[in-house]
Batch of 4 targets.
Target 1
Amino acid sequence: MGYLILILLNLLFPLIGTGVILSFLFSSRRKLLKNLNEELSERFVFSSKNRICGGYIWLHAASVGEVKSAVKIAADLKSFYKRPALITTSTAAGRAAAQKEPVFDVSVLMPMDFYYLVKRFIKIYAPHRLFIIESDLWPNMIIACGRNKIPAAVINGRISKRSASRYKLLLPLVKLVFKNISFVCAQSGEIKKLYLNLAMPEEKLYVSGNIKYDMLDAEPSRVENAENLLNILNWRGSKIITLGSTHEKEERAALSCALELNDVKFIIAPRHLERKEQIVKMIKASGIKFAILSDILNNINIDNSSGGAYAQVLLVDAMGWLGAFYKVSDIVFVGGSISKNGGHNFLEAAILRRPVFFGKYYYNAPDVAKEMLKSGGGVLVDENNFADIIRKFISQTDLIESAAASAQKTALSFKGAAAKTMAVVKEHEKETRT
């Protein structure tokens, strides 16, 4: 039955491929697709100009986040196998991110998941091993590797409950795909259970943690610049809370808190910078005095109608500053957790020895959130009690310090996933050779 579904998908490919081409040609973003010919060439494996040799360690990552997660493990795999690294991505943004990382010798777009195209891709690049990062499981890619005696594995494995329920609708195909996977290194025990429920044999499953956390940086860049900004804003000596990766509901909660706690300073770093104008209107409507990071960086006079040097809120409208602002704050709130987006990176702030506030919607990283709450390094808040909990913490320095120490200790406990993953890789290589 699994093969029947696979054959059907491949028979439908001409329609799917035509749809993809038309979506490119008639996209409203067509003018922005400057490399359309190159992208289609890679999607349909018309070109192999980047090929430098055969025998690659092939890593596949969906997009930018997975590419960043793959950097450390790619270096370890290259060192172990003594082979160059080829990375494929499902998005052009992912490929662009990979091209900036020296560890990847070749970075190309993943061909469309049509058996003939994947088979042609394998013939051209002659990969030695395939490692899929997180959750981008393409049936033809995995099965073609199996038929060509290329061991395939999933590392930093992730699967959501929603995806697992969808996979069950195609369980015969899923079983066929899993048959061609040597092993899965899952991020958590909960993810391992989801794989088990999809009939992945338990002997193929390991819990290795999240390799993304191995890249936690306790010394972010621009900290000195952030401290200078505090001087410009006349915030020295004030209690500061940075709200990172926020969405609208969380920004409204922050502004409500600011009105109630006018002696506390708030730094708001939205998840999506393109929402800047919307957020500016929101702040102006609240009547709170504020400053905008880009105005300060561009030497624009900040003593204007927005409040300037008397600001209570700083709106961050530039990339690359979040870690620095976390570092100079007393408390951190991580967004996406009140706004039902699943929560963003809690440990990015925790590793900097800061108490981490977040809402109850932390399904993107439940293992991390639960450990943070258990240790006391994480504090659960909502839009109704946010101000009260901030007031409680800023009135007790020892409470902030205790939570901060627990947060950092928890963050450190999540490191080491790359080493655990490599131990599994090496063990399987031994079994393959015996």
Target 2
Amino acid sequence: MPPGALAQVLCHLPVMEHPDLLVGCDSFADAGVFRLRDDLALVQTLDFFTPVVDDPFIFGQIAAANALSDVYAMGGEPKLVMNIVCFPSKSLDISVLAEILEGGAEKVREAGAIIVGGHSVEDKEPKYGLSVTGIVHPAELITNSNARAGDVLVLTKPVGTGLVLTAAKAEMAGEEEIAAAVQSMSNLNREAAAVMKEIGVSSATDITGFGLLGHAKEMAAASKVAMEISFKNVPLLPGAVRAAETGLIPGGAYANRDYVAEAVEAGGCEVGELEMDILCDPQTSGGLLLAVPKQKADRLLAALDQRGIQAAAIGVVTREMPGAIRVKK
């Protein structure tokens, strides 16, 4: 659903409050957080979507990694998982569903979590994802609302999954390009989250359907700061630029462009249509966007590199108009 349309619906719902509700749906947060006691809080999230690749097992891996990511983005540890399944059992062999679930289970095991059940419904199109319950110490909770002026913005995965997948559907993506995108989407954000907790960051979010700029806008707005992002420093998947140049733009990118238009206009933009298409590309199981104090940025990047994560510093947090995003070449 386009981010603007979702906001129009949610604004009419009553805001639920509780003294132990640390993070609810009245913010741009990645998950809900509820304090059970002074040293323990629950992190709750869910996500599911239609297949982004043809291989059922790999689709299960990607969908699971994507759902688990919200817990990692908040500094939490996934513990319990439930499968969410929509499946056309009258038109697809049940073995396809088995492969999807096996792929998801592999990622859940890798995360150190446990599948405890789930729910399925008959549908015309397959959909799969997870409801995830994690835990976090309230004092170690990381949100997307605490970025501070002077922080360095670090991205832990390359951008471009939507573009590459769109090119693949048009049979205009190379095997190596598809493989790189699949590998990126299948990778858990577990190691990146461990590093951000070890080094200490001001704020974090994961990059998914609203694209890099959409999620950056939400972090900036929630933190009441502005951001400056340099396109040249943003890591890109192989084939992403070529797909954008060819016009193979996923539909979600246009909705994301509309969503960030006012923020980018307020901040200023030095790049063209091509670059904006890439920065607004909807991501599946993208990386973490971290706001880290400047004095810690080099240590963070070095620690990520030691764990095999090719992260990059892509911008800075500034004191300009809250929520504004300046996009540089």
Target 3
Amino acid sequence: MKRPTTSFLFGYALAVLPALCSPPPEAISPKARALHFSAVVIDTHDDTTQRLLDPTFDLGVRHADGGIDIPRMREGGLNALFFSIWIPGTITGPKAVEQALTQIEAVRRQARLHPRDLVLATTAKDIRRAVARHKIAALMGIEGGHMINEALTTLDRFFELGVRYMTLTHSKNVTWADSSGEAPAHNGLTDFGQKVVANMNRLGMIVDISHVSDKTFYDVLALSQAPVIASHSSCRALCDAPRNMTDQMIKDLAATGGVIQINYYNGFLSQPFKNATLAQDSRIEKEIDALIKQHCGDDIACGDLEYLRLEREYMETGKLPRVDWMAIVDHIDHAVKLVGAEHVGLGSDFDGATMPFGMEDASHLPQITEALLKKGYSDRDIRNILGGNMLRVMQQVETVSERMRQRKR
């Protein structure tokens, strides 16, 4: 996990936090319930894959920690979930490919273990079919282009195994694209990076621009023949984090048919929270680091989990600014006012970062529908935000892929 001296928390930290006074979901109106549970609800980014690597973890039972399991997905009306395939950007080469394949198999295994509840999906039609069968569609996204080991054949292999989007970078630059987490090394996409995007278009794999530098983002928009997504990013105008998108970027993404999927991480939602936790000279940072050192020593895995636990505890006690779940709605509303409800969706980052109060896990998702209804959103707009927009992007990406393939015949 990245400590406060950097821009955000690493997804691999798992965020398996104790349920510290986590409240039950708020009551919602019959209208909101009917609308929410009749919509197709899609979350485009979730880090529970890291938990699936533990052979003792059972996705089929309700857990007291984390944000995702089958019972809570059912309670929250979550119909489709993109499981993130993630390893640190410091792991490269064949080892990165191997570890990515291990995680892909871990997701596929869950569908075999829970056939009554889960089904692997790769297309928009698959998701709709899963919903009709009252199952949850399990999809996959590669979070970081370092995992293809500079080989388009590896990208092809991931696609064949069911991966349907790739985040071009994580927090570190890759050899062919710049990340938002480091100083630029390539001025955006390299020639090989352009080939990666073109190959993704041909395959029918969605290009994800969360984590990339602003220049990489604009290089992708100029090149991609299909709409792209930001799988888990929020609005920089409300919280000035490099991982968030500027108003102009959101407008330009929408102009090409893309969708910004709002991230629920406190440090991307709340400026006061970000200021308190991420400033390099932060008193809170130094205090938490000292407690981690005392509790964990040099054990990195222990330190990662302890940081997330302490961050949540500090919000509980008031040492850090409290972030309420309505901040998610604020970011949705801001983006909608910029580009309309046809270009906004949900990308939680459950099990990869600390969540705001009242959105501790997937069972709380109907609250978003209730809040949007209260703001005067139409049923159609809410359905689009919950998942309809992502279905549309998937269908368009599939159409572009078919057209490109036909040209080569």
Target 4
Amino acid sequence: MFEDSNIVVGLEIGTSKICVVVGEQNAEGAVNIIGLGQSLSSGVRKGEICDTEKVEQEVRAAIFEAEQMADVEIRSVYLGVTGGHIRGFNNRGVHPVVSADREISDDDVQDVIKNAKAINLPAENTVVHAVRQHFFVDGQDGVTNPVGMLGARLEVDMHVIHGHANRLQNAIRLVRATQLEVNEIVFTGIASALALLSSEQKELGALVIDIGGGTTEFVVYSEGVIRHAGVLAVGGDHVSNDLAFGLKVPLSRAQKLKHEYGSALITEAAKGQTISITNELGLTLKTVNLEHLQRIMSLRLEELFEIIAHELEKAGLTDYLRAGVFLCGGGSRVPAIAKLAERVFQMNVTHGHAGSMSGITAALDQPEFAAAIGLVKYGSLKNRRRERRGGLGGTLGSIKNMFGSFLQRS
């Protein structure tokens, strides 16, 4: 194995699985996926670590598998974070231009961005991302780069994503205990959107929904920038729990029924049909109504989409999603889920694919790997920006500055 400065690694510690994706960045900045490692996750609940010892072992196993496939030695990772404590909101910063000639400088831009980040968060919370949207110069909106313009008042809109500092640090400390460095933490919703959306789709307006085992992340892009982001502490595991309760079967059996007979919409074939549940000897223990099973799943998933749709309606973003809705995550594998989402959102819904990268098809074509692939893309974009700045921004990705990192327009 060898170390290569062009290697970028994404690590997602999910509720259902631990996933590691290794990418190799060429001189032109293109990324090729060369390694994939995964292990079942048993110490994570709703996207957050609840058994450090178990998760550490599982991370080591996934890292080892990825190293073997890629034939590299992994030293550092971009770490995906999620959880019900993570929130996103828009904030505006204001800065008076005080130079004699009123020409806006780089320092003025940095000051207005700093003011936009200076928000009253709960004492225990910290900023994960502060995403620049657009500048305003003396009331003129839609300014993407105000440097060199004349003005007396500079403003900037930013989308701020923040979370509970200690709960974020739990994941960082665990990874560092495996002798790996954390380049930066990244909200997994942003990572998924980076993996799936093209520049054109970001400009048109798109909603990305990543349905995991214990959480569902969603991110809205419009006019090329992030407009809204959020996390729901609901995922595929909750569908399984609903089935176990509604059908009065053990959770393990409910999960098997979900995978074998589940659907987001009630199928014609399910009406009047029953499923026989047998024991190890083949004896029938009980029968389950297939239509009832699919109705339980449909209601839970419909509620999930309706919550997101309500969030977007409150934010006034529903009419800006001209590219439609993109689904990913293991939970998006449920049959007919795109049709159900189309019924709720009243727009085109598709399963997203990581089309901007090349490499291992097994990773690129699987919806549950979108976040980890996006983490690699995030890291590659950071590397390219550092190269353009001649290495001056090298410390931006360090663990010391990971809170409050500035995710520029991409």
